[in-house]
Write a structure and sequence with these properties.
By secondary structure, the protein is mainly β. The chain is built from no helices and 15 strands.
Length: 208
């Protein structure tokens, strides 16, 4: 089994109705696991406050104009938290005017009592159904099988600037073991890794 990646890049929108710039993502690590008809995505954010009263952290669940996941789990410092769904928009028009406004699925997260330069770790996990497709749809047993994973970007959507990002796309397969040694079956993983640094990273949703 091999992995075929077809990233569909789009330029970030620079202006719009966005959260205040009270946080910075000092590091973002995302792992995308392709397992048959399901895709599990786990993203860890190392977050630093730039204010003594930063307020809630706006966590983007998807990009502009995309649907949010049907199920997701958020933890802060290892403890599960419940986010508050909000309406946050980006726009290509100054001041957020015009018909180009589009919503990015977002939840507001209480990070607790965090002061300027304080840091916290947030983790987001969600599952997508039928997000990857086999190519070709059917094969002979001896033929190579590929998976197509379509993404709007090789960046993580966020309302805040990020210093460093690392995205790992992992395909998990389970080869058929010899019939007399079924206990020897182990998953095989193949990874594709994307790294982005501060020289080409900025907020993917906000104007900062």
């Amino acid at each position: 089994m091999r992995l075929a990646l077809l990233p569909l890049l789009w330029a970030p929108l620079a202006l719009g109705l966005t959260p205040p710039a009270n946080y910075i993502n000092t590091a973002v690590a995302r792992t995308i696991e392709l397992v048959g008809s399901t895709t599990q995505i786990t993203t860890q954010y190392n977050i630093k406050s730039t204010s003594n009263t930063p307020g809630e952290y706006y966590l983007a669940l998807a990009g502009v104009g995309e649907d949010g996941p049907a199920w997701y789990e958020i933890t802060v410092g290892g403890k599960e938290v419940i986010g508050k769904t909000i309406k946050a928009y980006v726009s290509s028009c100054p001041g957020g005017r015009g018909l180009m406004n589009r919503e990015a699925p977002t939840v507001a997260i209480d990070l607790g009592d965090i002061k300027k330069d304080g840091s916290v770790t947030l983790s987001l996990t969600y599952v997508l159904i039928h997000a990857s497709t086999p190519l070709p749809a059917s094969i002979e047993q001896k033929d190579a099988q590929y998976l197509i994973w379509k993404s709007n970007s090789t960046y993580v959507d966020s309302w805040y600037p990020s210093d460093v990002e690392r995205i790992k796309i992992r395909q998990v397969t389970s080869p058929c073991p010899p019939s007399d040694r079924a206990d020897r079956q182990v998953p095989i993983t193949q990874d594709s890794i994307y790294r982005n640094s501060s020289q080409d990273l900025h907020s993917r949703l906000g104007p900062h």
